Amino acid sequence: MNLLINGTAMDYSDSCRTLSDLMNRPEWSGRLIIVELNGEIVSKENYEITPLVEGDRIEVVHFVGGG
Amino acid sequence: MHDPLVIGGTALSSRLFIGTGKYSRNTLIPEVINRSGSQVITVALRRVDLTGGEENIMNHIPSHMTLLPNTSGARTAEEAVRIARLARAAGLGNWVKVEVINDQKYLLPDNLETIRATEILAAEGFVVLPYMSPDLSAAIRLRDAGAAAVMPLGAPIGTNRGLRTKELIRILIEEVNLPIIVDAGIGRPSEAAEAMEMGAAAVLLNTAIATARDPLGMAEAFRDAISAGRKAYLAGLGPVEEVATASSPLTGFLS
Lengths: 67, 255
Fold this sequence. Notes:
The complex is a heterodimer. By secondary structure, chain A is mainly beta. Helix content of chain A is 7%, strand content 37%. Chain A has 1 helix and 5 strands. Chain A has a 5-stranded mixed β-sheet with strand order 2-1-5-3-4, with no helix packed on it. Chain B is α/β, with parallel strands linked by helices. In chain B, helix 6 (189-198) links the parallel strand 9 (181-183) and strand 10 (202-205). In chain B, helix 1 packs parallel to helix 8 (215-235) and helix 2 (77-89) packs across helix 3. Strand 5 of chain A pairs antiparallel with strand 4 (40-47) of chain B.
Protein backbone atom coordinates (compact mmCIF):
# COMPACT_ATOMS: atom_id res chain seq x y z
CA MET A 1 0.00 0.00 0.00
CA ASN A 2 1.38 3.39 -0.97
CA LEU A 3 1.14 6.17 1.58
CA LEU A 4 2.45 9.71 1.31
CA ILE A 5 4.15 10.37 4.63
CA ASN A 6 5.59 13.82 5.25
CA GLY A 7 5.64 14.37 1.51
CA THR A 8 7.55 11.14 0.79
CA ALA A 9 5.93 8.19 -0.98
CA MET A 10 6.29 5.11 1.23
CA ASP A 11 5.33 1.54 0.45
CA TYR A 12 3.91 -0.44 3.36
CA SER A 13 2.78 -4.02 3.44
CA ASP A 14 -0.95 -4.64 3.46
CA SER A 15 -0.76 -5.68 7.11
CA CYS A 16 -0.65 -1.94 7.83
CA ARG A 17 -4.42 -1.55 7.95
CA THR A 18 -4.97 1.13 10.56
CA LEU A 19 -3.14 4.19 11.77
CA SER A 20 -2.38 2.21 14.91
CA ASP A 21 -0.55 -0.46 12.86
CA LEU A 22 1.50 2.26 11.21
CA MET A 23 2.31 4.12 14.41
CA ASN A 24 3.36 0.96 16.22
CA ARG A 25 6.23 0.53 13.80
CA PRO A 26 9.67 1.02 15.37
CA GLU A 27 10.44 4.28 13.56
CA TRP A 28 7.77 6.12 15.56
CA SER A 29 7.80 4.31 18.88
CA GLY A 30 8.79 6.17 22.00
CA ARG A 31 8.20 9.57 20.43
CA LEU A 32 5.64 12.19 21.18
CA ILE A 33 4.15 12.58 17.75
CA ILE A 34 1.04 14.18 16.35
CA VAL A 35 -0.60 12.81 13.24
CA GLU A 36 -2.65 14.44 10.54
CA LEU A 37 -4.45 12.17 8.06
CA ASN A 38 -5.55 13.88 4.85
CA GLY A 39 -5.47 17.22 6.63
CA GLU A 40 -7.36 16.16 9.76
CA ILE A 41 -5.72 15.66 13.14
CA VAL A 42 -6.24 12.16 14.50
CA SER A 43 -6.10 11.80 18.27
CA LYS A 44 -4.23 8.84 19.77
CA GLU A 45 -7.41 7.22 21.03
CA ASN A 46 -8.63 6.98 17.46
CA TYR A 47 -5.54 5.42 15.85
CA GLU A 48 -6.99 1.92 16.12
CA ILE A 49 -10.28 2.75 14.49
CA THR A 50 -8.75 4.82 11.70
CA PRO A 51 -8.31 2.68 8.58
CA LEU A 52 -5.59 3.48 6.04
CA VAL A 53 -6.26 3.36 2.34
CA GLU A 54 -4.05 3.57 -0.70
CA GLY A 55 -2.84 7.11 -1.34
CA ASP A 56 -3.54 8.52 2.12
CA ARG A 57 -1.58 11.65 2.95
CA ILE A 58 -0.11 11.49 6.43
CA GLU A 59 1.78 14.19 8.27
CA VAL A 60 3.74 13.16 11.34
CA VAL A 61 5.04 16.07 13.40
CA HIS A 62 6.83 16.45 16.70
CA PHE A 63 8.29 19.13 18.93
CA VAL A 64 11.76 20.43 18.22
CA GLY A 65 13.88 23.16 19.78
CA GLY A 66 12.66 26.66 19.08
CA GLY A 67 12.31 30.12 20.53
CA MET B 1 7.96 38.57 47.77
CA HIS B 2 4.67 37.28 46.41
CA ASP B 3 4.29 38.88 42.99
CA PRO B 4 2.90 36.28 40.61
CA LEU B 5 2.39 36.86 36.91
CA VAL B 6 -0.98 35.37 36.03
CA ILE B 7 -1.46 34.27 32.43
CA GLY B 8 -4.39 32.23 31.27
CA GLY B 9 -5.25 31.39 34.88
CA THR B 10 -1.73 30.12 35.67
CA ALA B 11 0.22 31.97 38.36
CA LEU B 12 3.92 32.14 37.56
CA SER B 13 6.58 33.15 40.06
CA SER B 14 9.25 33.50 37.35
CA ARG B 15 9.09 36.26 34.79
CA LEU B 16 11.68 34.72 32.51
CA PHE B 17 10.42 32.59 29.63
CA ILE B 18 13.05 30.61 27.76
CA GLY B 19 13.43 28.95 24.38
CA THR B 20 14.93 25.61 23.43
CA GLY B 21 16.64 26.45 20.13
CA LYS B 22 20.32 26.82 19.27
CA TYR B 23 21.84 24.96 22.23
CA SER B 24 25.13 23.27 21.45
CA ARG B 25 23.62 20.20 23.13
CA ASN B 26 20.08 19.71 24.39
CA THR B 27 21.28 18.17 27.65
CA LEU B 28 22.00 21.77 28.73
CA ILE B 29 18.29 22.56 28.72
CA PRO B 30 17.30 21.02 32.11
CA GLU B 31 20.19 22.82 33.81
CA VAL B 32 19.30 26.11 32.08
CA ILE B 33 15.77 25.66 33.42
CA ASN B 34 17.15 25.17 36.93
CA ARG B 35 19.54 28.09 36.85
CA SER B 36 17.09 30.48 35.18
CA GLY B 37 14.18 29.53 37.44
CA SER B 38 11.98 29.68 34.37
CA GLN B 39 8.57 27.99 34.35
CA VAL B 40 7.58 28.59 30.72
CA ILE B 41 9.48 27.15 27.79
CA THR B 42 8.98 27.42 24.05
CA VAL B 43 9.25 24.67 21.46
CA ALA B 44 8.58 24.52 17.72
CA LEU B 45 6.70 21.91 15.70
CA ARG B 46 8.19 20.24 12.64
CA ARG B 47 7.77 17.16 10.48
CA VAL B 48 9.47 14.07 11.85
CA ASP B 49 12.53 13.25 9.75
CA LEU B 50 11.76 9.84 8.28
CA THR B 51 15.44 8.99 7.97
CA GLY B 52 15.66 8.98 11.77
CA GLY B 53 18.40 10.10 14.10
CA GLU B 54 16.57 13.06 15.56
CA GLU B 55 16.73 13.70 19.24
CA ASN B 56 13.48 14.06 21.17
CA ILE B 57 13.53 17.54 22.71
CA MET B 58 10.78 16.53 25.13
CA ASN B 59 13.24 14.23 26.91
CA HIS B 60 14.94 17.38 28.17
CA ILE B 61 11.90 19.33 29.36
CA PRO B 62 10.67 18.48 32.86
CA SER B 63 6.93 17.95 33.13
CA HIS B 64 6.43 20.81 35.59
CA MET B 65 7.22 23.35 32.85
CA THR B 66 4.40 25.16 31.06
CA LEU B 67 4.95 24.37 27.40
CA LEU B 68 4.61 27.26 24.97
CA PRO B 69 4.64 25.81 21.45
CA ASN B 70 5.25 28.43 18.77
CA THR B 71 3.79 28.55 15.29
CA SER B 72 7.12 29.27 13.62
CA GLY B 73 7.07 28.49 9.94
CA ALA B 74 3.58 29.94 9.54
CA ARG B 75 3.20 32.60 6.85
CA THR B 76 -0.55 33.06 7.21
CA ALA B 77 -3.14 32.99 9.97
CA GLU B 78 -4.46 29.69 8.61
CA GLU B 79 -1.04 28.05 8.83
CA ALA B 80 -0.59 29.33 12.38
CA VAL B 81 -3.98 27.94 13.37
CA ARG B 82 -3.10 24.56 11.87
CA ILE B 83 0.20 24.41 13.76
CA ALA B 84 -1.47 25.47 17.01
CA ARG B 85 -4.10 22.75 16.70
CA LEU B 86 -1.44 20.13 16.02
CA ALA B 87 0.51 21.30 19.07
CA ARG B 88 -2.55 21.10 21.29
CA ALA B 89 -3.26 17.58 20.04
CA ALA B 90 -0.02 16.51 21.76
CA GLY B 91 -1.97 16.81 25.00
CA LEU B 92 0.52 19.08 26.77
CA GLY B 93 -1.64 22.10 27.36
CA ASN B 94 -3.32 24.82 25.39
CA TRP B 95 -0.78 27.64 25.36
CA VAL B 96 0.48 28.88 22.02
CA LYS B 97 2.90 31.55 20.88
CA VAL B 98 1.42 32.82 17.64
CA GLU B 99 4.22 33.72 15.28
CA VAL B 100 3.39 34.60 11.67
CA ILE B 101 6.35 35.74 9.60
CA ASN B 102 6.68 36.66 5.94
CA ASP B 103 9.88 38.67 6.10
CA GLN B 104 12.80 36.30 5.76
CA LYS B 105 15.52 38.90 6.31
CA TYR B 106 14.49 40.47 9.61
CA LEU B 107 11.89 37.86 10.60
CA LEU B 108 9.51 40.62 11.56
CA PRO B 109 6.02 39.40 12.43
CA ASP B 110 2.98 40.09 10.24
CA ASN B 111 0.70 41.83 12.73
CA LEU B 112 -2.41 41.56 10.57
CA GLU B 113 -2.19 37.78 10.14
CA THR B 114 -1.18 37.49 13.80
CA ILE B 115 -4.37 39.26 14.87
CA ARG B 116 -6.50 36.98 12.65
CA ALA B 117 -4.86 33.85 14.06
CA THR B 118 -5.22 35.12 17.62
CA GLU B 119 -8.93 35.70 17.13
CA ILE B 120 -9.52 32.16 15.85
CA LEU B 121 -7.36 30.44 18.46
CA ALA B 122 -8.64 32.41 21.44
CA ALA B 123 -12.18 31.50 20.39
CA GLU B 124 -11.09 27.84 20.41
CA GLY B 125 -9.92 28.12 24.00
CA PHE B 126 -6.19 28.52 23.47
CA VAL B 127 -4.12 30.71 25.77
CA VAL B 128 -2.68 32.88 23.02
CA LEU B 129 0.57 34.80 23.38
CA PRO B 130 1.19 36.57 20.07
CA TYR B 131 4.65 37.65 18.96
CA MET B 132 4.20 41.08 17.38
CA SER B 133 5.81 44.24 16.10
CA PRO B 134 5.24 46.84 18.80
CA ASP B 135 2.36 48.89 17.50
CA LEU B 136 -0.37 50.27 19.74
CA SER B 137 -3.37 49.67 17.53
CA ALA B 138 -2.24 46.12 16.74
CA ALA B 139 -1.76 45.42 20.45
CA ILE B 140 -5.25 46.71 21.23
CA ARG B 141 -6.70 44.54 18.47
CA LEU B 142 -4.81 41.54 19.85
CA ARG B 143 -6.23 42.23 23.30
CA ASP B 144 -9.74 42.53 21.87
CA ALA B 145 -9.17 39.31 19.91
CA GLY B 146 -8.58 37.50 23.20
CA ALA B 147 -4.80 37.40 23.59
CA ALA B 148 -3.64 36.46 27.09
CA ALA B 149 -0.57 38.70 26.72
CA VAL B 150 1.19 40.47 23.89
CA MET B 151 4.82 39.85 23.06
CA PRO B 152 6.47 42.75 21.21
CA LEU B 153 9.98 42.34 19.87
CA GLY B 154 12.87 44.30 21.32
CA ALA B 155 14.94 43.71 18.17
CA PRO B 156 14.85 41.12 15.37
CA ILE B 157 14.96 37.48 16.45
CA GLY B 158 18.36 36.14 17.34
CA THR B 159 20.21 39.43 16.96
CA ASN B 160 21.05 40.13 20.63
CA ARG B 161 20.72 43.83 19.73
CA GLY B 162 18.70 44.78 22.77
CA LEU B 163 15.70 46.96 23.47
CA ARG B 164 15.67 48.89 20.18
CA THR B 165 11.91 49.37 20.25
CA LYS B 166 11.94 50.77 23.76
CA GLU B 167 9.68 53.78 23.18
CA LEU B 168 7.02 51.73 21.44
CA ILE B 169 7.10 49.05 24.11
CA ARG B 170 6.80 51.73 26.78
CA ILE B 171 3.62 52.93 25.11
CA LEU B 172 2.19 49.39 25.01
CA ILE B 173 2.91 48.97 28.71
CA GLU B 174 1.20 52.27 29.45
CA GLU B 175 -1.82 51.84 27.21
CA VAL B 176 -2.64 48.13 26.90
CA ASN B 177 -4.20 46.44 29.87
CA LEU B 178 -2.52 43.06 29.33
CA PRO B 179 0.83 41.60 30.32
CA ILE B 180 3.49 42.90 27.91
CA ILE B 181 6.23 40.32 27.43
CA VAL B 182 9.33 41.44 25.58
CA ASP B 183 10.17 38.67 23.14
CA ALA B 184 13.18 38.57 20.85
CA GLY B 185 16.28 40.68 20.54
CA ILE B 186 17.29 40.97 24.17
CA GLY B 187 21.01 40.18 24.34
CA ARG B 188 22.18 41.32 27.77
CA PRO B 189 20.88 40.96 31.30
CA SER B 190 20.98 44.77 31.66
CA GLU B 191 18.55 45.05 28.74
CA ALA B 192 16.21 42.54 30.35
CA ALA B 193 16.43 44.50 33.60
CA GLU B 194 15.61 47.70 31.73
CA ALA B 195 12.52 46.12 30.18
CA MET B 196 11.37 44.99 33.60
CA GLU B 197 12.07 48.40 35.18
CA MET B 198 9.76 49.89 32.54
CA GLY B 199 6.97 47.58 33.63
CA ALA B 200 7.24 44.70 31.19
CA ALA B 201 5.49 41.68 32.70
CA ALA B 202 8.16 39.20 31.58
CA VAL B 203 10.95 38.61 29.08
CA LEU B 204 11.26 35.73 26.61
CA LEU B 205 14.83 34.77 25.72
CA ASN B 206 16.47 32.12 23.66
CA THR B 207 19.55 33.20 21.71
CA ALA B 208 21.06 35.33 24.48
CA ILE B 209 21.33 32.30 26.76
CA ALA B 210 21.85 29.55 24.18
CA THR B 211 24.73 31.29 22.40
CA ALA B 212 26.53 32.58 25.50
CA ARG B 213 29.93 31.06 26.19
CA ASP B 214 28.47 29.64 29.40
CA PRO B 215 24.70 29.24 28.95
CA LEU B 216 24.18 28.14 32.55
CA GLY B 217 25.95 31.19 33.96
CA MET B 218 24.01 33.42 31.58
CA ALA B 219 20.71 31.81 32.58
CA GLU B 220 21.44 32.76 36.17
CA ALA B 221 22.52 36.28 35.20
CA PHE B 222 19.23 36.82 33.38
CA ARG B 223 17.26 35.40 36.30
CA ASP B 224 18.89 37.91 38.65
CA ALA B 225 18.54 40.83 36.21
CA ILE B 226 14.85 40.19 35.63
CA SER B 227 14.23 39.83 39.33
CA ALA B 228 16.12 43.09 40.03
CA GLY B 229 14.30 44.94 37.26
CA ARG B 230 10.95 43.79 38.55
CA LYS B 231 11.80 44.86 42.11
CA ALA B 232 12.86 48.28 40.81
CA TYR B 233 9.59 48.66 38.93
CA LEU B 234 7.58 47.77 42.02
CA ALA B 235 9.68 50.08 44.19
CA GLY B 236 9.12 53.01 41.82
CA LEU B 237 12.12 54.72 40.26
CA GLY B 238 13.16 58.09 41.67
CA PRO B 239 12.51 61.19 39.56
CA VAL B 240 14.94 62.25 36.84
CA GLU B 241 16.13 65.88 37.19
CA GLU B 242 17.86 68.25 34.76
CA VAL B 243 20.23 69.82 37.29
CA ALA B 244 21.94 68.57 40.43
CA THR B 245 19.98 68.22 43.64
CA ALA B 246 22.33 67.77 46.57
CA SER B 247 22.11 64.60 48.56
CA SER B 248 24.21 66.09 51.39
CA PRO B 249 23.39 69.23 53.42
CA LEU B 250 24.21 72.39 51.45
CA THR B 251 25.85 74.25 54.37
CA GLY B 252 29.64 74.65 54.29
CA PHE B 253 31.63 71.94 56.01
CA LEU B 254 32.57 73.93 59.14
CA SER B 255 30.39 77.00 58.88
